[in-house]
Amino acid sequence: KAGVTQTPRYLIKTRGQQVTLSCSPISGHRSVSWYQQTPGQGLQFLFEYFSETQRNKGNFPGRFSGRQFSNSRSEMNVSTLELGDSALYLCASSPSTGRFNEQYFGPGTRLTVT
Amino acid sequence: AQSVTQPDIHITVSEGASLELRCNYSYGATPYLFWYVQSPGQGLQLLLKYFSGDTLVQGIKGFEAEFKRSQSSFNLRKPSVHWSDAAEYFCAVGATFGNEKLTFGTGTRLTIIP
């Protein structure tokens, strides 16, 4: 079974631009969560989607948004990029929602904002 | 809200030596506890998890962890490390009620010397 895939793997953007990152979960998994990883803040939860609905949201500004499609693939969007948005963005999928489910992580998208 | 502390930012051990990585959590009840490993350029892989029951948990790659309620700890151990164990290790806690997602520690970088 293929793992979680994220595209693109690397991205360089300029301040003020917007960016869209994509995540394809493991086949059959319906929950997708997004995390931001930075050296200063560590791993922080962004949001979770299940059955095309946002179930949980972390403490991030409204510039960060996401969506999930009927095939469970998910995208996250960051508008008006700031230098501080440079990070590794990790996507994780699990069969269902809820804290009992093990999360499987993708390799991440490394976003650099200049 | 829950929190996790990994007091050691960086640990260096010799190949073949034993390893213990520390993790302390703060939560009002018994939480769900996890250890993840991240190799360079990779996503996170789950090593082991504790939900309830036996406080000594066995994981993959020869790792184990022990939940100690009295010390609010969930330390990761391995009797003999291999060079391939060099990576960053993250402890995470999940709430047992409410609708919160995983909270990660800041990670411990493990270096193996021959």
Q: How are helices and strands ordered from N to C of chain A?
A: EEEEEEEEEEE
How would you classify the helix and strand content of chain A by structural class?
A: mainly beta
The percent of residues in helical segments of chain B reads under 10%
Q: Which stretches of chain A are poorly predicted, pLDDT < 50 over at least 5 residues?
A: none
What's the overall average pLDDT of chain B, rounded?
91
Mean pLDDT of chain A: 92
Instruction: Please report the distance between the alpha carbons of the first and last residues of chain B.
Output: 41 Å
SSE sequence of chain B, one letter per element: EEEEEEEEEEEE
Strand residue content of chain B: over 45%
Number of helices of chain B: 0
- The 3D shape of chain B can be described as globular
What structural category characterises the helix and strand content of chain B?
Answer: mainly beta
Query: How much helix is in the residues of chain A?
Result: under 10%
Poorly predicted regions of chain B are none
User: What is the number of beta strands of chain A?
Assistant: 11
Radius of gyration of chain B: 14 Å
Largest sheet of chain A: 7 strands, mixed
Proportion of residues in extended strands of chain A: over 45%
Overall, the morphology of chain A is globular
